[in-house]
Amino acid sequence: MANQMGLHVGCLLLVVAVTLLKGAAAENYTVGDDLGWNIPPLGSIAYKTWANKKSFQIGDTIVFNWTGSHTVAEVSEANYGNCTKSNPLALYDSSPVPITLTSNLTRYFICTVDDHCKGLGQKVTIKIGGDDDWGNSAYSPTLNIAALLFCSAIAAFFLSF
């Protein structure tokens, strides 16, 4: 009887651990919320403030929506800093543009039309997760293996009674 109880407790702990590690469902974010991907009225602070209020995770989708003449280009950090339009990592010229976040790498986006980026601040940095963010750890094979080993040890402990 004790062995069966230990097995059930161990299995329950494993299910709980896997559920916790799986994290919350992916979110969809419209870049800039109501502003969309347009020239921000107060310059780059608008998108910086918007992005800093979000907690982007792997699996989330950011969507660039705009009206008028705009683009969205994913660029390197160096090209982001000075709004360099040449050699983008990706370039989109038709709205909407959904982009799924697939890693913890910080991503950089600018508008390549005229001086929308450099002069008017139409650019955004998307920071995905962080080292101390448990929400992202679901995507860490090391943590998943560690959790499985931990649960196995708990189950073995209960099975020994």
From TrEMBL:
Record flagged with keyword Signal = yes
Q: PROSITE patterns this protein is in?
A: PHYTOCYANIN (PS51485)
Q: Return the GO cellular component terms, semicolon-separated.
A: plasma membrane
From the Swiss-Prot or TrEMBL record, what is one GO molecular function term?
A: electron transfer activity
Q: Which UniProt keywords apply?
A: Disulfide bond, Glycoprotein, Membrane, Signal, Transmembrane, Transmembrane helix
Gene3D superfamilies cross-referenced by the UniProt entry: Cupredoxins - blue copper proteins
Alphabetical list of Pfam families matching this protein: Cu_bind_like
Bilayer-spanning residue ranges:
138-159
Signal peptide (from-to):
1-26
Q: Does the keyword Methyltransferase apply?
A: no
Residues in domain Phytocyanin? Answer: 27-130
What is the name of the protein in this document? Stellacyanin-like
Q: Which organism is it from?
A: Prunus avium
